[in-house]
Known about the structure:
Distance between the termini: 15 Å
Shape: globular
Structural class: mainly alpha
Number of strands: 0
Helix content: 55-70%
Number of helices: 7
Amino acid sequence: xxxxxxxxxxxxxxxxxxxxxxxxxxxxxxxxxxxxxxxxxxxxxxxxxxxxxxxxxxxxxxxxxxxxxxxxxxxxxxxxxxxxxxxxxxxxxxxxxxxxxxxxxxxxxxxxxxxxxxxxxxxxxxxxxxxxxxxxxxxxxxxxxx
Length: 146
């Protein structure tokens, strides 16, 4: 079981994909968890998720944990396969709860009601690559399996 989770190809692909995902997700997670980058912090975000979006509290909690702890884990290369799978699930959920009705394209020119889901598909694709390849070079996973 340990090998299935932590085994990595020890190549640059895993490093690049996990760092890209982690560095993109971290500011969003830090907004939700800590209130950094103009975010509302944990309690404000939980209030938005439960009161405005009417999500169950456990879903709101998991969104925050996946975006914050998951991002840090991906950056350090710890259990990247698990966090990638969770990120895929998260972004599929985000597409269906918030972006599907807005179409494919991002709202580059302000003509749409909201943002499309093209960005989310990129994160899902990168996460799939990390799920398949593992954490890659310079990862905690690499050290665990040695």
